[in-house]
Write a structure and sequence with these properties.
The complex is a heterodimer of chains A (about 475) and B (about 450). Chain A has about 475 residues and is α/β, with parallel strands linked by helices. Chain A contains 15 helices and 18 strands. Chain A folds into 2 domains: about 325 residues, Aldolase class I (TIM Barrel, Alpha-Beta Barrel), CATH 3.20.20.70; about 120 residues, Alpha-Beta Plaits (2-Layer Sandwich). Classes of the chains: A alpha/beta (about 475), B alpha/beta (about 450).
Chain lengths: ~475, ~450
């Protein structure tokens, strides 16, 4: 398969590898060592030793083996996807079950893979029925492969949950603690608990995992979704012989949800465990965002299912270049650096004022900002006549201009503008005074009245129309 | 020359020689990169003579890893900026883009490659490749054009001491001296040369081997020698009047234009370019841009046989160049200066060995076209006298004969690539030859 590649590439790659040593991407995750933070998530790309070994050849730092355990049988048409504006697979949903190959076959391949790749992290994902002896048995057999760690799959929202496993465990903190205890009491290697996002508050299952003795937490697993309905057949997409149901959703679309949940666990004082983050990581930029919000390792699945293991090249290189540029030499210096920015709404500065400003030299007169502001925001963009010659005739175009005294700084126009750098949010307060809602409420008589609030706003030049 | 076209204002010159393919903005580059499907083992990569991993470098632009994109490009092609701007992408990478199959415009690969390389040079060429420890071997390279530069860079990265010998006062060969300035500027070429020098390659200019230093001397001093001196001698028309004032060689003319000293290049009011290759198109459109009033191509075959690419023909035709097809020059008329060119009409007869129909003169069809300047662009020949001094080096069909995989000549110590082995192809072919020859040299010296 690789023969048609230019023969000479490997020599330079080797040299480039030496160059990259200036930045150290290696991690130590609760004792699990990995040359870089990029692990394949427990999913179809880690179904076999063929795949995991190929991924390691491409440079992946670790792999969480596709969950092994109870006997299962799959159906066909396992995936559905959302495309957006010509871009394929913004999100992907699956109803594939855990490994449909036997535990024996998997354990043999895991042992072989770890023997061949001693410097990479090989983590085995497990899911068996909720019996203490059954867990003890599979944990011991897993440890015997020589793998680095165990990941407990409390996440799968489809199929397995109907049999009392996966998300059915992850959604009940007591079960989560109980099974984690069964595993940690038998395990001599680190145990990660993988959480489902299909809960009201991710901190409860996270704390339950900690209580059960987990060494680390992985999240997020997939989100319950129905991908769509076929308007010709009126069946679900995808359809399995006319029927379907919810599956687990992943891919770039879920990243913001995952970022939130990862940061919630990272700042929770009761947890304090290393986090293996996943959910829509496609590029080095995504990965850095998770690390900045507290993740130690990064798991990837959808991007690999779309483009293959080769994406690791850009992920490592892009991360390395960024770290070099910013002056970081290892990921410990990066991890959690943005967590200090996370706060409650009540602590945000009410006197921070920014307004939108349109750079007329860059504006293309599409007026998407105008209509967005007028219909969807606060009616503070005016249009001025702008005669412009287009192919010989003069058109009277509209030049949008922000009425800054009325702009509430909502940022909607900035978001809809299709030209980079055309609309910017410009800070206009003096930066000296700050007050949050919580502080203001301590100053004003309670319960606060509209009139008291208006006076405060008026004093600071804030007029609400 | 008698009727020199009036000089233009400097603003007019700059407008006439402005880039015909302006660069992408960061915004448009990202949008275009995101449109790329990121194909695997892609058709564009296979169509590129240097096999750049195109979809990978474009993916890197999409993620904002522009430095990494430059690295991916340079791993396959050391002459990446010139190729990005001068390659006939329509018939190479972009012509193979899968979007063509979907009846949609192909990805603008050339412009994206240029975006990556421009950014890289603008950032001051941060080091991407650390040369291996010196292996104790030294290689001499004759000619600092794209083939030689590619060979030098590849060898330097592998740990060789490399010295280049260039006859002219600036390196770069035709990249520096032979490409129309509205496609590639000398600055682009000189940036690429700086990159090669940054890898430790020593370039000696004003050094013509055989004159300033003997070939035997090189054989003594170096472990291997790469010949990348291109084609030296412009072919003559072999017709009367060729020595008249106003008859110039196309490459000499183009070379003067690359210096951007517009007013120092005289051009006639009426200019005839003989030949219809891509160099002829450059010469005729440059004449036009310098202020010539009537410009024409004289070519003995028809448009179908014309060696210039279709897009080059369109460019010239749109700029008012008149094409005299099936017309051959028989005599340049004039006493001291060019006054006219006498031609004969041709018709196409039976096919040649190369499959093209042979043009035959139509008796009695002679006619004269009044012109002030004749630019000859009917090909170049190799400097065979130099090569004859190297024992074992063999020629075939006017080119240096090399092994197609090792680029080794009949003399095991000598390797060759670029125009001198292919008779004159694209920069990208030279870049590939040079790189592959470096590995041929490495295999030869280390028995790999």
């Amino acid at each position: 398969m690789m023969e048609s590649r230019p023969r000479t590439g490997s020599i330079i790659s080797f040299l480039v590898g030496r160059e990259d040593l200036m930045v150290d991407l290696s991690i130590d995750f609760a004792g699990i060592r990995s040359p870089n933070p990029f692990w394949l998530a427990s999913a179809p790309p880690t179904n076999s030793s063929y795949q995991v070994c190929k991924a390691f050849e491409h440079g992946w730092g670790g792999a969480v083996w596709k969950t092994i355990g109870e006997p299962v049988m799959n159906v066909v048409n396992r995936y559905g996807a959302v495309d957006y504006n010509g871009q394929k697979i913004l999100g992907i949903n699956n109803i594939e079950l855990i490994s449909d190959r036997s535990v024996d076959v998997n354990l043999k391949e895991i042992a072989e893979t770890k023997r061949l790749w001693p410097d990479r992290a090989v983590i085995v994902s497990l899911m068996v029925e909720s019996k203490r002896e059954t867990w003890h048995d599979i944990v011991q057999r897993t440890i015997d492969t020589g793998c680095d760690a165990i990941e407990l799959n409390y996440g799968c929202p489809h199929g397995m949950s109907e049999r009392g496993m996966g998300a059915a465990v992850g959604q009940v903190p007591e079960y989560c603690t109980m099974i984690t205890e069964w595993v940690t009491e038998a395990s001599t290697i680190p145990v990660l608990v993988k959480l489902t996002p299909n809960v009201a508050d991710i901190r409860y299952p996270g704390r339950a995992a900690k209580k059960g003795g987990a060494d680390g937490i992985s999240l997020i697993n997939t989100i319950n979704t129905i991908m769509g309905v076929d308007l010709d057949t009126l069946e679900l997409k995808p359809s399995i012989d006319g029927k379907g149901g919810h599956g687990g959703y992943a891919g770039p679309a879920v990243k913001p949800i995952a970022l939130n949940m990862v940061s919630q666990l990272a700042v929770d004082s009761e947890i304090g465990l290393p986090i293996s983050a996943m959910g829509g990581v496609s590029t080095w930029r995504d990965a850095l965002e998770f690390i900045l919000l507290g993740a130690t390792s990064i798991q990837v699945c959808t991007a690999v299912m779309h483009y293959g293991f080769r994406i690791i090249d850009d992920m490592m290189e892009g991360m390395t270049n960024w770290m070099e540029e910013k002056g970081y030499s290892n990921l410990n210096e990066v991890r959690g650096k943005s967590l200090k920015c996370i706060t409650d709404f009540g602590s945000l500065n009410l006197l921070y004022k920014a307004v939108a400003r349109i750079d007329e030299s860059k504006c293309i007169q599409c007026n998407l900002c105008t209509i967005a502001c007028d219909d969807g925001a606060h009616q503070c963009i005016d249009v001025l006549p702008k005669p412009k010659e287009v192919n010989g005739s003069v058109l009277n175009l509209n030049q949008p201009q922000v009425r800054e005294e009325d702009c509430v700084g909502c940022r909607l126009c900035f978001l809809v503008c299709p030209v980079d750098g055309c609309i910017s949010m410009v800070r206009v307060d003096n930066g000296k005074e700050t007050i949050s809602w919580n502080e203001l409420m301590r100053q004003l008589p309670q319960p606060v009245t509209w009139e008291a609030l208006r006076q405060f706003q008026h004093k600071h030049g804030i007029e609400i129309h | 020359m008698k009727n020199i076209a009036p000089k233009l204002t400097s603003d007019q010159y700059e407008e006439n020689f402005a880039e015909i393919h302006p660069p992408l903005t960061p915004n448009s580059a990202t949008a275009e990169a995101q449109r790329c499907l990121y194909c695997y083992e892609s058709p564009c990569m296979k169509a590129c003579p240097t096999h750049i991993d195109i979809s990978t470098f474009i993916k890197k632009i999409a993620t904002g890893n522009v430095k990494g994109a430059a690295k991916t490009i340079l791993q396959s092609n050391w002459i990446a900026l010139t190729c990005a701007k001068a390659c006939p992408v329509d018939v190479l990478c972009e012509g193979a883009c899968v979007y063509n199959e979907r009846q949609e415009p192909p990805i603008q690969i050339g412009k994206l490659q240029r975006f990556a390389m421009d950014s890289y040079f603008q950032k001051g060429m941060p080091p991407l490749f650390s040369p291996a420890r010196k292996n104790g071997k030294s290689v001499a390279i004759i000619g600092a054009g794209p083939a030689g530069l590619a060979c030098a860079a590849e060898l330097a990265v592998m740990g060789y001491s490399v010295t280049m010998f260039e006859a002219k006062n600036m390196p770069g060969g035709l990249d520096t001296w032979g490409i129309a300035p509205y496609k590639v500027t000398q600055k682009d070429s000189l940036n690429e040369i700086k990159l090669v020098q940054s890898l430790g390659v020593d370039i000696k200019t004003n050094m013509r081997i055989g004159k300033d230093r003997g070939i035997d001397d090189l054989i003594q001093a170096y472990d291997a020698i790469f010949i990348g001196f291109g084609l030296g001698i412009a072919s003559n028309l072999e017709i009367p009047g060729e020595d008249l004032d106003g008859v110039v060689d196309a490459l000499d003319f183009i070379e003067k234009v690359t210096t951007r000293e517009w007013t120092s290049v005289d051009v006639g009011r009426r200019v005839a370019v003989i030949g219809a290759g891509n160099t002829a198109i450059d010469a005729v459109t440059e004449s036009r841009r310098l202020g010539a009033e009537q410009v024409m191509i004289i070519y003995r075959r028809s448009r179908t046989e014309m060696p210039a690419y279709d897009f080059e023909y369109e460019l010239a035709a749109n700029e008012g160049v008149f094409f005299h097809f099936l017309t051959a020059p028989v005599r340049i008329v004039g006493t001291k200066h060019v006054e006219a060119i006498e031609c004969v009409k041709m018709r196409l007869g039976k096919s040649d060995e190369d499959g093209r129909r042979r043009p035959e003169p139509i008796p009695g069809s002679e006619f004269q076209i009044p012109v002030d300047m004749v630019i000859k662009s009917v090909g170049q020949n190799i400097e065979a006298s130099f090569l004859s001094k190297i024992p074992g080096v063999k020629m075939s069909g006017g080119n240096v004969l090399v092994d197609p995989s090792s680029y080794q000549t009949g003399n095991p110590k000598f390797f060759a690539g670029g125009d001198c082995i292919n008779g004159g192809k694209e920069v990208v072919n030279a870049a590939y030859d040079g790189k592959q020859a470096a590995h041929g040299i490495d295999n030869f010296l280390f028995g790999r």
